[in-house]
Write a structure and sequence with these properties.
The complex is a heterodimer of chains A (40) and B (215). Chain A contains 1 helix and no strands. Chain A has 40 residues and is an all-alpha fold. The two termini of chain B are 29 Å apart. The chains are: A mainly alpha (40), B mainly alpha (215).
Chain lengths: 40, 215
Amino acid sequence: MSYTWAAYLVVLVAVLVWVGIIALKLRRLERDVRELPRHD
Amino acid sequence: MPLAFAALVLLGGGLGLALLWIGELEGFAAGGIFFVHVPVALSAYALLVWGAWKALRLLWTRDERYDLESYTGIHVGLIFALLTLVTGSIWARAEWGVWWDWRDRQLVTFLILFLFYSAYFMLRYSLEQGPARARISAVYALFGVVLIPVSFLAVRLAEQFLHRTPLIRAGRPDIEGTVLGVFGVCFAGALALAASMYAIELAGKRLDARLQEAR
């Protein structure tokens, strides 16, 4: 594999990891919203 | 979401064009890395400057919403800075045969910039949440921004060049035509990616803050 491809792959993997982390955080936030005590 | 889509199209399209149409830059080993390394580096600078600008707004107005904006800008900026270091290191290996060269001033000043902003998080999380933490973090972020022009100009101030700058030299573009056009597309894509990551992270952090208040 050429160095150019390796550099492109690094950026792609980093963005995918970031997307994964954000997706996990959003799931946690969604769960926290559901668990909020209701005042109705 | 339109911004994320634009980032995907521009960056994917730009890098695709770079690979298929241009191939490697003349005179460079693995010159194709230029189309990802330089846009990512410039986006890192832009994000860190944005974080510092928000820090200045916080100190100026005492409005605490700028604290989260400054923090998010620096956080995403640091991700881009890390990518700059990694892609730069891969390029160095292809170009110079080594992963790192301590004689290169731009590499070293960029590493200092990266470490400085890494310490921002250590400082921030060692303090209790509140107005004092927001102000101290803002002052630190503003100090860091001074390093950006130093890092950017380091290669131009150096007497002996290792780190080549195939963009602008002596006031005129060093690349032109197709290469410059493809670089522009990649740069726009990297900026759109940076902006969409910033917007998504900021929205998540704001929601998290509102949830903490609601509890």
